[in-house]
Amino acid sequence: MWHIKNELKIIGINAILISGALTAVFVLLALLGGELLHLSCAGFEVFFPVFCSIAVGEWGKMKTDDAFDIIAAQSPSIFPWILRRFTAVFGEVTVFATAAMTAVSFLRQEAPVSELFLLYFAPAFFLSTLAVLSGICFLQEHIPALLCGMTGLLVLMLRSLLRVQGMGYVYLFIRFAGDPDDVWLINKAILYGCGLLLWYGIFTICDKRKYSRSS
Predict the structure, then answer these.
(1) What are the b/e assignments for 16-30, b being 16+ CB within 10 Å?
(2) At what angle do helices 143-157 and 48-59 cross, to 10 degrees?
(3) Residue 213 falls within a domain, yes or no?
(4) Is 89 part of any domain?
(5) Percent helix / strand / coil, the chain, rounded to 5
(6) What is the mean pLDDT of residues 29-45?
(7) How many domains does the chain have?
């Protein structure tokens, strides 16, 4: 826990300020929005997961961190450090997202908080893990955020793929797209499993003792 708190101090106050501001705007929108505005799926399956992945890419710096070479040289595996930094950023954004879920659920009665959390967690975990993977593979800054943002945009643009049988099981924003086959719970489980597979790939890369900024 001490390591997580230390990573939060390194990340700085900007993450809290921006996350808090976005959460406040979202809650205000929930308060002032009319009955025709349905925020649950758009907000917690699309907006907050994409924002979370961008936050992990921008604030949870991996290979672009100035201390990366020192940590890599002094540790047999850099994986624990990467996992701690991911946990710090992902957890911080998730706290704000959960606060927004609670407010939206109370103000609009669209869905219980537990359902909103299920909508949020799997795509957020998958996209944020993708940000971590790209963060340890690319030296250039902003590549993880760009990759996750473009992935989210591309998925939204390819909504018509749901016409293909079985595509609903892996479509990233299935509830937002309407969930024609009512498979969203299976979809979330598959996305979570894909995220765990990505973490296995991250562990495999980080377990190499000679892994460094120049690799």
Answers:
(1) eebbeebbeebbeeb
(2) 160
(3) no
(4) yes
(5) 75, 0, 25
(6) 80
(7) 1
Tokens encoding 54: 């961008």
The answer to whether residues 124 and 48 touch, using CB atoms and an 8 Å cutoff, is yes
Token digits of residue 34: 């009319």
Residues 106-134 pLDDT 10s: 888 888 999 999 999 999 999 999 999 99
What is the distance between the alpha carbons of residues 126 and 49, in angstroms, rounded to a whole number? 9
pLDDT digits (tens, 9 = 90+) for 184-203: 999 999 999 999 999 999 99
123 assigned to some structural domain: yes
**Arithmetic mean of pLDDT, 80-89:** 88
Q: Is the pLDDT of residue 215 over 60?
A: no
Residue position matching structure tokens 């921006």: 18
Query: Which token pair is 206?
Result: 């980080």
CB of 152 closer than 8 Å to CB of 172: yes
152, part of any domain: yes
Domain that holds residue 118: 2-206
How far apart (Å, rounded) are the C-alpha atoms in residues 188 and 89? 21
> What is the distance between the alpha carbons of residues 170 and 168, in angstroms, rounded to a whole number?
5
- Residue 211 pLDDT: 55
